[in-house]
Amino acid sequence: MSTWRQDGFHLLLGLTLAMVFFGVAVVVGGGLILLLSAIAPSSVRDAMNEFSQLLQAGLLITALLEIIAWYFLPRIGFVHPILARRMTTGMAAVALFMMVSLLFSL
Fold this sequence. Notes:
Blueprint: H1 2-39, H2 42-72, H3 81-105
Helix pairs in contact: 1-2, 2-3
């Protein structure tokens, strides 16, 4: 019975870490798309302005959820505290950037 619990714990650990790292990739990729839209030609920029505010809001929410996730993961023993601290700091910087860019775009 204990092997089933260990297998379940490792499955939960793997799924959680995969989702958290996927969230980081989404936030970084979306941020790069927003930065590229600033240097894009005017025709591409006009097309991207239609959904850029929705993308910024979605990335801000995702970054805030990532901050919460990376804050709690070391407390339940899923990741090393140093990795969690670095990822929390990185996601906080991205969230701050998204918040400022969203506020200035309104």
